[in-house]
Specification:
Elements: E1 2-11, E2 16-24, H1 32-43, E3 50-57, E4 63-71, H2 74-80, H3 83-104
Antiparallel strand pairs: 1-2, 2-4, 3-4
Length: 105
């Protein structure tokens, strides 16, 4: 998978970075988790403070436009981000912790 940064805006009023990417991939469409981990690795962002706002798939092409918001802290994310997205992130974090504990045993 190849990720190219299209736009990187520092929104100081809301305490976040707004980043747009063009992702080119192979056989299957990129998942939200894969996109988030790749983007966080590339820019050095904290995954727990990062939310994927939008993924636009281009029909017939193996490309997607991805819009990501990365907040400076958890409080800013809770204040400005939609509640269902933050709940989704918390559920995924809990399930990953549970899987890690099962593997450790």
């Amino acid at each position: 998978m190849e990720i190219k940064v299209i736009e990187n805006v520092d929104n100081k009023l809301l305490g976040r970075k707004e980043v747009s990417f063009l992702a080119t991939y192979g056989d299957k469409t990129i998942s939200m988790d894969e996109a988030k981990t790749e983007i966080c690795k590339k820019l050095g962002l904290k995954p727990e403070n990062t939310v994927i706002n939008r993924i636009d798939q281009k029909f017939g092409l193996k490309q997607s436009m991805i819009r990501v918001y990365s907040y400076q802290n958890k409080e800013a994310m809770d204040r400005y981000e939609r509640k269902y997205l933050t709940k989704r992130l918390e559920k995924k974090a809990k399930s990953k912790d549970a899987e890690a504990q099962k593997e450790a045993q």
